[in-house]
Design a protein that fits this description.
By secondary structure, the protein is mainly alpha-helical. The chain folds into two domains: 203 residues, Growth Hormone, Chain: A (Up-down Bundle); 190 residues, Growth Hormone, Chain: A (Up-down Bundle), CATH 1.20.1250.20. It is built from 20 helices and no strands. It is globular. About 5% of the residues have low confidence.
């Protein structure tokens, strides 16, 4: 079923008589390359691989290195709102190209790092900006302009490729560090971004000119009507529902995923088996994106949001009732399915619930919301574990948060766009 859906996607047009097959394939293929080589795939997923060389050569502690990631979360409102503001003014392609260029330059900068930890933190912040500059908001602005009937499948494919890149990058980084060293590996990542991702963006990725014209015309100079539309959007019930859903999702996923290995060890798995379970989260994320993409064009997105939120709830209950290896694996995979589908469903819902002229800013606000939840998750989990001495209370709380997040989408009305 997924293979046939992909074939149908590549062999169809967004609207009969207006688009040829070839432009759609170029846009999808170009964005596929970008997603495979994005900062999220190459940098975030490989930080643990670079950890030992950075500690050994530069003398940094593990706490100092991971602090760079925590600092990045604090910059989310700035980057997200900037990206949203630019998108609502018709600059989606410029945002994407600029983000790829900055990603390459940051990788080159990382290959030249000295012992000063401050420069590393600045590079981390800039890299986080490149992640927000490529996905998910700019991706949606481009894909929505080309795909109408098949936009769910298109988003599912691209988000799955991002997970595929994140799964392959650690293996590639490990092999390259062994042969080339960590500095040349970072430089190679920069070359890949500059040559392959930038080439794909310049050659193939662009907003559909037919869809862009009416949005760009009003976006050059925001009107009072646009500002009023944005205020109305954030006040409407749909925005509140989606925001609560994302806040709970971000918290629930990060509070478990960052503690998954010690949590499963507490429930009887060895460290090696718990590491396998951690890998299943990524596999579940890839599968969740593809599955969501196939179903979004056939099933209401709000119902899918409920369905995918119930997967980790079932996994938590299974782990609590039947402690063991199989339950740990099921829980990890179900967690990946949930978070993997979240981005695809969010991008689809955003395009159907909010006006195109303000979609960039609205989605930027929602990215901030999910980041707040994600940033709080690991700390809440650590506090609960330190206080109670186990992860039982955390899993009980997360069962509740997943249940509430599953119920929230029932309040969404019919699509508006």
């Amino acid at each position: 079923m997924p293979i046939q859906a992909i074939r149908n996607l590549l062999g169809s047009t967004a609207s009969p008589g207006s688009l040829s097959i070839r432009p759609e394939r170029k846009v999808l293929g170009g964005f596929g390359v970008i997603m495979l080589l994005s900062g999220g795939a190459l940098w975030a997923s490989t930080l643990g691989i670079f950890l030992a060389p950075l500690e050994r050569e530069l003398g940094w502690s593990q706490t100092q290195i991971y602090l760079g990631v925590s600092i990045c979360y604090l910059t989310t409102p700035v980057f997200a709102l900037l990206v949203g503001w630019l998108l609502d003014r018709g600059h989606a392609r410029r945002v994407i190209i600029g983000a790829i260029l900055m990603e390459a330059l940051v990788f080159f900068g990382m290959s030249r790092m000295g012992q000063g930890i401050g420069a590393y933190y600045v590079l981390c912040i800039l890299m986080f900006g490149t992640v927000l500059g490529v996905t998910p908001v700019p991706l949606t602005a481009v894909i929505n302009s080309w795909f109408v009937d098949k936009r769910g499948m298109a988003l599912g494919i691209l988000f799955s490729l991002n997970y595929a890149g994140a799964m392959m990058a650690p293996v590639a980084a490990l092999a390259m560090i062994d042969r080339l060293g960590w500095r040349h590996t970072y430089a190679a990542f920069g070359v890949a971004a500059l040559v392959l991702a930038m080439g794909a963006a310049l050659l193939w990725v662009r907003v559909n000119p037919d869809a862009k014209a009416p949005v760009a015309e009003t976006a050059r100079k925001p009107s009072e009507g646009q500002r009023r539309a944005l205020l109305d959007a954030v006040r409407q019930k749909e925005f509140l529902i989606v925001a609560i859903w994302l806040l709970l999702y971000g918290y629930s996923f990060n509070s478990i995923s960052f503690h998954l290995v010690p949590m499963l060890e507490e429930y009887g798995l060895s460290t090696a088996k718990a590491a396998v379970a951690q890998g299943l989260v990524g596999f579940g994320g890839l599968s969740g994106n593809l599955l969501a993409g196939v179903l979004l064009d056939r099933v209401r997105a709000s119902r899918l949001a409920t369905l995918f939120a119930l997967f980790p709830l079932a996994g938590i209950v299974m782990l609590a009732v039947w402690t063991g290896q199989a339950s740990g694996y099921v829980m990890a995979a179900s967690l990946g399915l949930a978070v993997g589908s979240e981005g695809t469903i969010l991008m689809y819902l955003g395009g159907r619930l909010f006006a195109p002229a303000i979609l960039g800013t609205v989605m930027a606000l929602l990215v901030i919301v999910v980041t707040i939840g994600a940033a709080s998750g690991p700390a809440v989990a650590a506090l609960l574990h330190d206080h109670f001495g186990s992860y039982h209370q955390l899993l009980a709380l997360n069962a509740l948060t997943f249940l509430v997040s599953a119920l929230m989408p029932f309040g969404l009305k019919a699509y508006r766009y």
